[in-house]
Amino acid sequence: MSRFSALTALLLSLPLLAIAQSPLYGQCGGNGWTGPKTCVSGATCTVINDWYWQCLPGNGPTSSSPTSTPTTTTTTGGPQPTVPAAGNPYTGYEIYLSPYYAAEAQAAAAQISDATQKAKALKVAQIPTFTWFDVIAKTSTLGDYLAEASALGKSSGKKYLVQIVVYDLPDRDCAALASNGEFSIANNGLNNYKGYIDQLVAQIKKYPDVRVVAVIEPDSLANLVTNLNVSKCANAQTAYKAGVTYALQQLNSVGVYMYLDAGHAGWLGWPANLNPAAQLFSQLYRDAGSPQYVRGLATNVANYNALSASSPDPVTQGNPNYDELHYINALAPALQSGGFPAHFIVDQGRSGVQNIRQQWGDWCNVKGAGFGQRPTLSTGSSLIDAIVWIKPGGECDGTTNTSSPRYDSHCGLSDATPNAPEAGQWFQAYFETLVRNASPPL
Ligand code: BGC
């Protein structure tokens, strides 16, 4: 072979080499998988389930051909408790501070020149806020958080709890555009979602000493209650139910305390929606085998409603359930009669200022909002386990860029903050508004 042709052969082989191996956390096998079946160096192809084999860190026996058998992990059993402790899962636990959000808040504070506002912004970094796993690529960081929480627990003698949001269903955000996700039902999305759940489970089971509380799939089931007239939601119904059922069962197997997302007072809290909502939650729960670690529902996630409004916001007119407490009190009996555990957590992270919306359904970076009541177990209601911060204040709800595929017209309304980046991206101006308007003040 001439030097020229040898070089050509080498160059030609490079792209082949590049696609012949899956990256760390990439897929490397499973039913219907036609991509690479070996992993990059330092990763081992591991059977997560029949449909999803994944390159996980480690140097175990690597699957070198489609017929070789990779190492097997199971997603059930293990050292986790199988019977949940009775009562409120927050009781007796320290809440782990998400380093992800703390870093966002600290970086934001560094950009604020006013010393008073800067000091207030820095306080936000100390307030426990849920960490969202909104793409599969982020799941690898969960192990780091759990390891740190475990170490903190060992060194302090206290017990730690990590708060996460499970948010990656295929055809996500079916009635809106701003938070459309990475998986599509048409393109193996349900199996990919199962792989995402398995990835979370694989990490959680390594840290049985750390308690995990999860909010399951914001907006998904609420969309199935009220938005089946939207074809994307109707089309997603089966996959949403199958995905949520899988999440409940698998997360249950490793002792994760779960709250399913239940929209908010201005959505499922309308009297006509209460019973259909309760029926859906109860049915799904029973069909999943009544997983013992399902504790209840999360409400007001990423919304702006008061827990208990001093007077109804005019936009709530016509709904007797004009705040989260009224909604919860109205929904609980229907849940209980359906056999669903009626316990709640309520997001108050951005509910500090009321009467700021032109329509109750406005949800995108609403102008004039402020950080709300701090997380607490003193909720004033035996139905409510905790007031929490679920939406990380300062992360955007949706872009105002009209040429983005994820542009949603709600983000262009006159009560939505202009110049907004993509959902989930940091929105400095909005964070500064939340800090300034915080109530109680920071
Ligand atoms: C976004 C997610 C983000 C979450 C929390 C959602 O609206 O779509 O990407 O993680 O908000 O900020």
UniProtKB/TrEMBL annotation:
One Pfam family, short name: Glyco_hydro_6
Start and end residues of each CBM1 domain: 20-56
GO CC, any one term: extracellular region
Source taxon at top rank: Eukaryota
SMART domains xrefs: fCBD
Signal peptide range: 1-20
Name of the protein this chain belongs to: Glucanase
Organism: Volvariella volvacea
Lineage: Eukaryota, Fungi, Dikarya, Basidiomycota, Agaricomycotina
